[in-house]
Amino acid sequence: MTRVKGGVISLKRRRNVLKQVKGYRFGRSNKEREAREAIAHAGAHAFAHRRDKKNDYRRLFTTRINAALRPLGLSYSKFIGMLKKENITLDRKILSQIAAERPEIFAKVVETARG
């Protein structure tokens, strides 16, 4: 079998790896071995932090709803209980948007939940 030199493919692979780490600091941006390591770690963190972002937003929604409920004389947990009892199926994201952008409509939702 004839010998195949892998120069072109190796260069292509190296170029693609270094393109992915453009903007990284120190040797991670121009040394292939460090760049591969950086890509692996970045991928792991990106996966975990996509999950964390969902939790962060849910926490933000809860805080916004609670802040809008306090002047109306309610707490977040009691309000969510009322919604479930009345079978109102608005999710927390929508409720927080209504609370922030349209307080008068949010007040009507609260009155409906009170029954």
From TrEMBL:
An example Gene Ontology CC term for this record: ribonucleoprotein complex
Pfam families hit by this protein: Ribosomal_L20
GO annotation, biological process: ribosomal large subunit assembly; translation
Gene3D superfamilies, alphabetized: 6.10.160.10, Ribosomal protein L20
InterPro entries given in the database record: Ribosomal_bL20, Ribosomal_protein_bL20_C
Family that this chain belongs to: Belongs to the bacterial ribosomal protein bL20 family.
PANTHER family assigned to the protein according to its UniProt record, in alphabetical order: 39S RIBOSOMAL PROTEIN L20 (PTHR10986)
Name of the protein in its database record: Large ribosomal subunit protein bL20
UniProt source species: Candidatus Yonathbacteria bacterium RIFOXYD1_FULL_52_36
